[in-house]
Specification:
Elements: E1 2-8, E2 11-16, E3 20-25, E4 39-45, E5 48-54, H1 55-58, E6 71-75, E7 82-86, E8 88-94, E9 100-101, H2 109-114, E10 115-121, E11 124-129, H3 137-143
Parallel strand pairs: 2-11, 5-7
Antiparallel strand pairs: 1-2, 1-8, 3-6, 4-5, 6-7, 9-10, 10-11
């Protein structure tokens, strides 16, 4: 499996590269009224409107710290796309499925639905996210 490793609130996260359409430099989103608190706004992307999600806010890790390294990862989905703000992008790398550990029971069920596993990579633990499941059906209804 190929994964994209990125930073979020001083932790390393990753996602399967097949979930990623593109990595964009950070663009300040246009804020929309009455959206969920983790929705930062929208940007123009390939002649359409792309909702931008703050994973830091969604996961209750604090506010995004926008720097020159900040990126937006465009998430591929069957119908609607969205972007997620990340602190930085480290690398695309190959992993072996045997290096993916299950999530410990110390996390609650809500957190576990976003997390596919934990990866041991270069003496670090990298959280493997399932970005396709980050938005609940209620979230999608309010965003799209």
């Amino acid at each position: 499996n190929k994964i994209l490793v990125f930073g979020l609130s001083n932790e390393k996260y990753s996602t399967n590269i097949t979930e990623v359409e593109r990595i964009l430099g950070y663009v300040e989103p246009t804020i929309l009224p009455e959206t969920p608190d983790f929705v930062r706004g929208v940007i123009d992307y390939e002649d359409s409107i792309l909702p931008i999600i703050s994973l830091s806010n969604k996961f209750k890790l604090g506010e995004d710290k926008i720097t020159e390294a900040t990126k937006i990862i465009v998430v591929k989905r069957k119908k609607k796309k969205f972007g997620v703000i990340v602190d930085n992008v480290y690398e695309v790398t190959d992993i072996n499925n045997k290096n993916i550990a299950e999530i410990p029971e110390i996390t609650n069920a809500i957190e576990r639905k976003y997390i596919s596993g934990l990866i041991k990579l270069d003496n670090h633990i990298v959280i493997l996210l399932d970005l396709d499941r980050v938005l609940s059906s209620e979230d999608e209804a309010s965003i799209f």
